[in-house]
Amino acid sequence: MPALIPTDFKGTVTWLGLVGEEREGIRSAANPKVFASFAGAEGEIHGGLTRPSCVRVTTQYPEGTEIANVRQFTIVSAEELSAIAEAMEMNEIKPEWLGASIVVEGIPDFTHVPPSARLQNEAGTCLVIDMHNRPCIFPAKEIEKDHPGLGKRFKPAAEGRRGVTAWVEREGPLAVGDVMRLHVPDQRTWSLLDEARRA
Fold first, then answer.
1. C-alpha angle with apex 166: 130 to 48, nearest 5 degrees?
2. How far apart are CA 17 and CA 176, in angstroms?
3. For 93-104, what is each residue's pLDDT tens digit?
């Protein structure tokens, strides 16, 4: 019996980008198409089958421990970028400031889609969502370079709107204009989530 439910929610890829291995900061550069291998996108600083652990998982491992790389891609939604811009009183938030890999349009409340959900395009390329990304100071620094004085507004404005990290389950091409269908795990919400947060 299938464990994932294909939904009617689909997101159109409106932007693709790479954070190059030779870079300053987290800024990504636009790229109209990439090949998503099991190690991520070629030339992407976040690529690789493994990665050193970061602050996100210090409750599990000392920082720098080699772990499986489940954050090969950073995916954000066009709608949430617009909401962040509105909250910051700016005309736009560019995905490159966030170090984004992919922008999708059309999936509501995108940052909170369930972990382990899949995004799959018509070519069969499939990304697994690991978890939502958290706002941090690095996008603020990129915004500050282009709009001095406004970077400090980013973190509170991006709370709950920062998108998700993802990794490649099935290799294949990704391109601007691709339509990615959302597949979600066939399970109810964990009833003890609020209790776990308080622990």
1. 115
2. 10
3. 999 999 999 999
Alpha carbon of residue 189 to chain centroid: 21
- The H or E element that residue 166 is part of is strand 164-170
CA–CA dist 133, 88 (Å, integer):
19
Buried b / exposed e over 59-77, threshold 16 CB at 10 Å, is eeeeeeeeeebbbbbbbbb
Does residue 13 contact residue 33 with C-beta atoms inside 8 Å? Answer: no
Find tokens 């966030």 and name the residue.
98
Whole-model pTM: value is 0.94
Give the integer Cα–Cα distance in Å for 159 and 65: 28
Neighbouring-strand partners of residue 120? 126, 181
Pairwise pLDDT comparison (23 vs 127), residue with the higher score: 127
Model confidence over 12-30: pLDDT tens digits? 999 999 998 777 789 999 9
CB 23 within 8 A of CB 115: no
Q: Would you say residue 180 has pLDDT above 80? A: yes
